[in-house]
Design a protein that fits this description.
The protein is built from 2 helices and 8 strands. The chain starts with 9 loop residues before the first helix and ends with a strand. The strands form 2 sheets. The chain has a 4-stranded antiparallel beta sheet with strand order 3-2-1-5, covered by helices on one side. It is 34% helix and 23% strand.
């Protein structure tokens, strides 16, 4: 006569623990909300648009980056299909939330960013995008 054993195997217990951990992390990320990542996403989008503006300037195209309180967009031959909407973050240059940037034929910034500047991104985690005087564009 064999004894019947009750309970779970070690594999079943480890599998359940892993599933509960994964679901817990997913629920935690939903609880914290996307607003904490909005400034990082805006910084990355701004750097991408500035680099596309720079590529256009190096190719001899006359393009402008326009920033308003609601969106970031390129105008001219470099323009993309859809502007980047500013939902949970704001972008300012020297305290102004509405500005336009252009680059010269070597990819260096022109006024109001002549000689380099910092563009502030305000939100849950404030970020900065720097345009150096020689044209290097990067997030800080």
């Amino acid at each position: 006569m064999t004894a019947r054993q009750y309970g779970f195997t070690l594999v079943e217990l480890v599998t359940i623990i892993m599933l509960v951990a994964i679901l817990g992390l997913y629920a935690l990320s939903r609880f914290l909300g996307p607003s904490q990542f909005a400034t990082f996403a805006t910084r990355d989008a701004l750097v991408g648009e500035l680099r596309r503006l720079q590529q256009g300037a190096l190719a001899g195209q006359s393009c402008t980056l326009s920033v308003t309180p609601t969106q970031i967009s390129l105008t001219g031959p470099c323009a993309g299909e859809n502007p980047y909407a500013l939902d949970r973050a704001s972008v300012t240059l020297a305290g102004s939330s509405t500005f336009s940037l252009s680059l010269d034929g070597l990819g260096r910034p022109l006024a109001p960013c002549n000689g380099g500047c910092d563009i502030a991104i305000e939100g849950e985690s404030p970020q900065t995008v720097r345009i150096e005087s020689e044209g290097y564009i990067h997030g800080l």
